[in-house]
Amino acid sequence: MIQGLTAETENAKCQNTKLEAAVTQSEQQGEAALTDARCKLAELEAALQKAKQDMACLLKEYQEVMNSKLGLDIEIATYRRLLEGEEQRLCEGVGSVMSGVSSSRGGVTCGGLTYGTTPGRQIASGPSATGGAASQ
Predict the structure, then answer these.
(1) Which residues form a coiled coil (predicted)?
(2) Cα distances (angstroms) measured from residue 120 to each of 23, 26, 90, 105, 117
């Protein structure tokens, strides 16, 4: 009976040692996992901060480009009004020159192309008639 209890005690001690070793190993694995998770969290936070900084820079660049675009749109509109005014002036000028031409010889058309014809000669102005430049 003493031998049975001694064997049982030894068996319990052996099982206790194995369980303590398993607990120690689990604690070490848990600590390693926790350390790894903290490291990954720090990396993610750093990446998030960098992404925020990059986005702020991109937003600033976008705003600068949009300001430039707005300025260019205004400039384009200004030049468009100037061109339309110049085209109107040219149409009026060609119209007064062509008023002496008989209607049987041709007429004056304003818009994309302004021209009039006389026998053997053509008077033309406008972008398509002059290759992009207005003639007088």
Answers:
(1) 2-68
(2) 110, 105, 22, 11, 8
Q: How far apart (Å, rounded) are the C-alpha atoms in residues 41 and 81? A: 59
Whether the model pTM is above 0.70? no
Convert the pLDDT of each residue in 49-97 to its tens digit. 999 999 999 999 999 999 999 999 999 999 999 999 999 988 887 766 6
The tokens for 38 are 């903290």
Q: How far apart are CA 108 and CA 123, in angstroms?
A: 9
Counted domains in the chain: 1
pLDDT band at 122 (very low <50, low <70, confident <90, very high): very low
Eight-state DSSP code of residue 85: H
Its domain, for residue 62, covers 21-97+105-127
